[in-house]
């Protein structure tokens, strides 16, 4: 009898949902062993299917990684959407303060996502670099992808004081800054400052609130 992994025995594959089973198996391998352990054969073994089964949906490992990255960016979008919803429910400040707080909340959600899913986050940006682009939005998203959420928040914070080009550039600056913070937040050099400010979350919030883009918004 063909051996199967414990994960496959616990979550047997059901005919008709092969792609989802393979994606879930890839996610399990990522969380447990990291990106280097991913292969079509390993994913098939994890899902409890034949080594040839993944080729019905992915022509090679690169296509599997692109699908994982696409799903990762969709999950990031969901995290940012949730941050916006939570900010709206918690709104208690002035009309000037709330948009700035939402930008900070979005930055927190971004960094927390990266910290919670480091292997997935690595695959997302490895594929983005390999393809020279972030994943394209689908028609169903109606231009409301993760980056658009940041642009919308930037537009709200800036009011009518900025051109569309300024908003776009500020959103890029915001995204790059949050990405850099996500990459560097674990550096040991920051430990004394984290302790001084009251911990990881306080440190992240303070850095986000000191981004130049937020100060520029205040200046208008």
Explain the overall architecture:
This protein is mainly α. Helix content is 68%, strand content 0%. The protein contains 11 helices and no strands. It has helices at residues 6-10, 18-33, 40-47, 61-90, 97-116, 118-130, 146-158, 164-184, 191-197, 200-209, 212-218. Helix 5 packs antiparallel against helix 7 and helix 5 (97-116) crosses helix 10 (200-209). The N and C termini lie far apart (71 Å). Mean pLDDT is 85; it is low at 1-10 and 138-143.
Key features of this structure:
220 residues; mainly alpha; 68% helix
Please give the radius of gyration in angstroms: 20 Å
Calculate the mean pLDDT score and round it: 85
In DSSP terms, counting alpha (H) and pi (I) runs of 4 or more, how many helices?
11
Based on CA inertia axes, which overall geometry fits?
Answer: globular
Main beta sheet: strand number and arrangement? Answer: none
Assembly status = single chain
Any low-confidence stretches, pLDDT <50, length ≥5?
1-10, 138-143
Number of strands: 0
* Span of the ends, CA to CA: 71 Å
Structural class: mainly alpha
Helical content band:
55-70%
Order of helices and strands: HHHHHHHHHHH
Q: Proportion of β residues?
A: under 5%
Draw up the topology in text.
Elements: H1 6-10, H2 18-33, H3 40-47, H4 61-90, H5 97-116, H6 118-130, H7 146-158, H8 164-184, H9 191-197, H10 200-209, H11 212-218
Helix pairs in contact: 2-3, 4-5, 4-6, 4-7, 5-7, 5-8, 5-10, 7-8, 9-10
